Amino acid sequence: MSTHKIRAASLPEGTVAKAGPWTVANRKGEVRAVSSRCRHQLADLSKGSIDKDGCLVCPWHASRYDLDTGEMVEGPKGFLWYVGRTPGYEQLIKGVGKVLKLRRRPVEREGASFVVR
Which tens digit of pLDDT belongs to each residue from 39-92? Predict the structure, then answer.
């Protein structure tokens, strides 16, 4: 299994970054790594953000993911280039996100870097 590193200084609290195929998130000092593709339309989650509840938020349609389980906790707010209400569709995609969770990997601090194992 290959490892991927990211400089700790480039990941302050409340931010996300990319380390190889992983999105690495620093949630109040807790660093987590999840797969980088949103389960909705495959957006790059490393371009997302962490919300006030500590969830990873997709940059395209605001799907929210639990960093501890990889589960989608709130579905998308749009489709393709449309951003807005999507009754029914949001629940369908949220159901898919509960089954097809983001993969997770352990992260360890090694000197000035975080290493995704």
Answer: 988 999 999 999 999 999 999 989 999 999 999 998 887 777 777 777 777 788
The region that residue 94 occupies, defined by phi over 0 for left and psi between -120 and 50 for alpha, beta otherwise, is: alpha
Contact 40, 75 (CB under 8 A): yes
Other beta carbons less than 10 A from residue 25's beta carbon: 26
CB 22 within 8 A of CB 33: yes
CATH 3.20.20.80 fits 4-109, yes or no: no
> With 0-12 CB in 10 A as exposed, 13-18 as middle and 19+ as buried, what is 110?
exposed
The model carries a pTM of 0.87
Task: Decide if 31 contacts 8 (C-beta within 8 A).
Answer: no
For residue 76, CA distances in Å to 9, 42, 45, 68, 94 come to 31, 12, 13, 19, 8
